[in-house]
Design a protein that fits this description.
It is built from 6 helices and 5 strands; from the N terminus they run H-E-E-H-H-H-H-E-E-E-H. With 159 residues, it is of the alpha+beta class. Strand 1 (35-39) and strand 2 (45-53) form a beta hairpin.
Length: 159
């Protein structure tokens, strides 16, 4: 009788645990655009960028790179200021033309780290999605647009 009761308890536990839905998000697989948050008085802009990586540090680093890449090549929509909404490099196929420069610029520990400051670490400003294999993190950072523009001038990328 005790064996039967133990057997039924084990089966019931396994059924209960096995039927629980898995809590895996698919949000980590979707591309998300960089969003404008605030315009600073010195010409820099605060943006919310998303990065995907295997670990938290990789995802945060990728989000920083995405924010700077979007300011340089795509432009970030700044309401009420069309001049700051334009990308810094406004050439056709700029990513292909300056591939060697951009690859060197965005290497781990590369010069891109000089052009952002102040990561906002309040809980409500960052989102984290975990898919089981990769993590997607939203980071709010300030991109130093004027300094980045001067750096591109010094390296003869823009006039």
């Amino acid at each position: 009788m005790k064996r039967l009761l133990l057997f039924v308890a084990v089966i019931a536990t396994m059924t209960f645990v096995g039927c629980n839905p898995q809590k895996v998000s698919t949000a980590a697989f979707y591309e998300t655009e960089t969003q404008f948050m605030n315009l600073e008085g010195d010409g820099s802009i605060t943006v919310r960028a998303f990065g995907i990586g295997r670990y938290r540090g990789d995802a945060i680093d990728q989000a920083r790179k995405n924010a700077i890449r979007d300011v340089m090549l795509k432009g970030v929509e700044v309401p009420g200021n069309p001049m700051l909404s334009k990308p810094l490099i406004m050439e056709i196929n700029a990513e292909e033309k300056y591939a060697a420069f951009l690859n060197n610029f965005f290497t781990d520990g590369g010069p891109y780290k000089e052009f952002f400051s102040r990561e906002d670490r309040r809980r409500e400003t960052s989102d984290k999605y975990w898919s089981g294999k990769q993590m997607k993190i939203a980071v709010t950072i300030r991109v130093l647009r004027p300094e980045l523009q001067q750096y591109l001038r010094d390296n003869n990328i823009i006039k």
